Amino acid sequence: MNSKVNFTFNGTQYSGEEGQSVAAALLNSGVTSLRSTRFNGEPRTIFCGIGICFDCVVKIDGVANQRACLIAITEGSQIESSQ
Amino acid sequence: MIAIIGAGPAGLAAARAIALAGFAVTVIDAAQKPGGQYWRHRSTVDGYKATRSEKYFSTVMGNPLVTYINGAQVWSATRSEKSIYINYLQSGVEKRLTCTDLILTTGAYDRSLPFTGWDKPGSMTPGAAQALLKGHGVIAGKSIVISGTGPFLLPVAVGLAAGGAKVEGVFEANSPLRWLRSPLALLLNPEKALELLYYLKQFRRYSIPVRFGKAVTEFTGHSVRISDVNSDMTIKKTNVREIDCNVIATGWGFVPDITLGGILGCNQVVDKDGTVVFSVDNNQRSSIENIWIAGEATGIGGSDLALAEGHIAGLSVIGKRIPFSLNFSKFRKRLFARALQVSYPVNPGWKKWLNRQTLICRCEEVSCGQILDSVEELKAEDARTSKLFTRAGMGLCQGRICSRNVAEIIGESKELRVSDSERIAYSNRPIAAPISLGTLGDGISSK
């Protein structure tokens, strides 16, 4: 069993397994939208799952445009929806 | 110094051949773990012949002749007369690797076709569902519908069902009778029949319904609408069924990732399935003398073919003769890959599913209507001009998802065939991964 990793998404506390991507951990926690689109404000989350489509981009610890499907969760990291 | 970019089946087979012959090799890969997109090995549910990958992991990883650089995003490469310089980012730090010989095994990603609702959360590629399951131990949804075309839909469906999801059905657009057109490929690849039997058994075990000549043409967010499709992919009968589900995974074959070889100037051609691939010789050598290319980037063919090609590339780099048995193995697997193209074509009628509101470019939120208007009213003649008017393909993904679809939509509206040069133009991009301007500047100035 992998150890538990705690992080926040838009200020709410979540946890996932060590090694899981941000997108996987949030999807597993029931989060169905990682951001809203720029023009139409539509919800978006994981689509290609392997870093090609950039639909799942989020801000991680202040760094914008990080692909949530590629970046592994780390203890205490603060994740926010990209604007 | 020999370097390999990519640690999927082709890259690992090349590294294995080189290391077993007593030569040093450096393998550089974007992922944290080796195996690429196909060999993911976290889950207990690994599918058909999953243990085969162990032979490659055990002889490559931990071999003192193999230097393994993981988590490395290669964003560019340049070359001088004798050397190739690979620029990459590892944990945000810029690094550079210099080699004399390079093997590119950059793989492929799912091809997506647009349909109403494909941009809603819950719609994803089969590759995403597979990556979530095998890479991260997460089942994409409770109830899942799988649609599109190609044999990859089968392992994804079985994996998800074994993981505990309710797979409501697999809707394959093409007819299985198309296989009758490739008797020689079937005859020379008898082990594929065993693989098919394995999947049929699993489908029965998990009670997964499979239907042919059907495609998902709309996703509402909590259900999908299925249409009967003709062999040219036009709709025969619309909305024949509605199925409740929270995930729809659609995939229409694969797109080879050719960016790095394109940046290095390796010759490309348009394959029969319309994908842009590298032209290589019998030993997998590209048009550039010290660059070899193996796996999906030379033509979509699956992991079996990638293993043979990687093995050949590895032997060729170190000047070894390629045994006849290996060449024959590649030949018959290449024949099977051709049969896959014949059996699972993505015929042009899919554009009839679209309406003016259907989103085509996900990044810049460009609809089908906007693209058609750029042709009708603004006189765009190709994808590049349309892109300048509509921004389709100018977002973060740099057109990786939509550019082929945009070109084909424009081609059809003008009743023109998309030319090979246009296919090559929209398939290439100057930088392989997004980087900061500072990194770009440093990368250029330290040439």
From TrEMBL, chain A:
One Pfam family, short name: Fer2_4
UniProtKB keywords: Oxidoreductase
InterPro entries named among the record's database cross-references: 2Fe-2S-bd_N, 2Fe-2S_ferredoxin-like_sf
MF (Gene Ontology): iron-sulfur cluster binding; oxidoreductase activity
Protein name in UniProt: Unannotated protein
The organism of origin for this protein: freshwater metagenome
UniProtKB/TrEMBL annotation, chain B:
MF annotations from Gene Ontology: oxidoreductase activity
InterPro entries linked to this entry: BFD-like_2Fe2S-bd_dom, BFD-like_2Fe2S-bd_dom_sf, FAD/NAD-bd_sf, FAD/NAD-binding_dom, Metab_Enz_Cyan_OpOx_G3PDH, Opine_Oxase_asu/HCN_bsu
Gene3D superfamilies: BFD-like [2Fe-2S]-binding domain (1.10.10.1100), FAD/NAD(P)-binding domain (3.50.50.60)
CDD domains: GlpA-like_Fer2_BFD-like
Keyword terms, alphabetized: Oxidoreductase
Domain (FAD/NAD(P)-binding) ranges: 2-298
Domain BFD-like [2Fe-2S]-binding: from-to ranges: 359-411
Species name: freshwater metagenome
Name recorded for this polypeptide: Unannotated protein
Pfam families named among the record's database cross-references: Fer2_BFD (PF04324), Pyr_redox_2 (PF07992)
Cited SUPFAM superfamilies: FAD/NAD(P)-binding domain
